[in-house]
Design brief:
Helix content: 10-25%
Number of strands: 9
Strand content: 25-35%
Order of helices and strands: EHEHEEEHEEEE
Distance between the termini: 22 Å
Number of helices: 3
Length: 177
């Protein structure tokens, strides 16, 4: 297995990630089996997790994508750039925002606020990783979380450092650049 020199150690193996994704898929199936939810992938980081997750949700659903960026290197810029260009009508819909990691929560809190203005029946957040120690948006919590992690900069399984390492099949801890 390819491990770049910048990856200090593997935090979660492919098997561990699969178990977290399976568990989330089971919970979402139970909660949305009669609701025809709209699963919205927050690009780019969540794309790998999103693809695996929706295949584990065993009920009818629709998908959509939005783009949100707030990082430069290993630091959040504090500014969030959003693109809702291709988002369908969500009024009255059950929306599940799928994100790879909840860190400061600036991005997801802004996305939820913008989507709430479109009158969905509900908006829930599903993330693979949650890093509550970095939260700057008070009281923000994900509704569905795979696993909580410490304040580490992680890459792989869609997570990147300057657009690199998304293709790693595991989640690793990045050496300080």
């Amino acid at each position: 297995m390819f491990t770049p020199k910048e990856v200090k150690r593997i935090l979660f193996t492919e098997d561990e990630i699969s178990r977290y994704v399976n568990s989330l898929g089971e919970r979402l199936t139970c909660d949305y089996s009669e609701k025809n939810p709209l699963f919205v992938c927050v690009l780019k980081g969540a794309c790998v997790f999103f693809s695996d997750l929706i295949r584990r949700v065993e009920c009818p659903l629709e998908i959509a994508f939005l783009s949100a960026e707030s990082y430069c290197g290993t630091q959040s810029t504090g500014e969030v750039e959003l693109s809702f260009d291709k988002l369908p009508e969500i009024s009255g819909r059950y929306v599940v925002l799928v994100e790879d990691i909840v860190d400061t929560a600036r991005t997801l809190s802004l996305v939820k606020e913008k989507l709430a203005a479109r009158n969905p029946a509900s908006i829930k957040v599903c993330c693979l990783l949650d890093k509550p120690s970095r939260r700057v948006v008070s009281g923000f919590t994900a509704d569905y979380t795979g696993v909580e992690i410490d304040d580490l900069f992680v890459v792989g399984y869609g997570l990147d450092y300057d657009q690199r390492f998304r293709n790693l099949p595991y989640i690793g801890i990045l050496e300080e650049p």
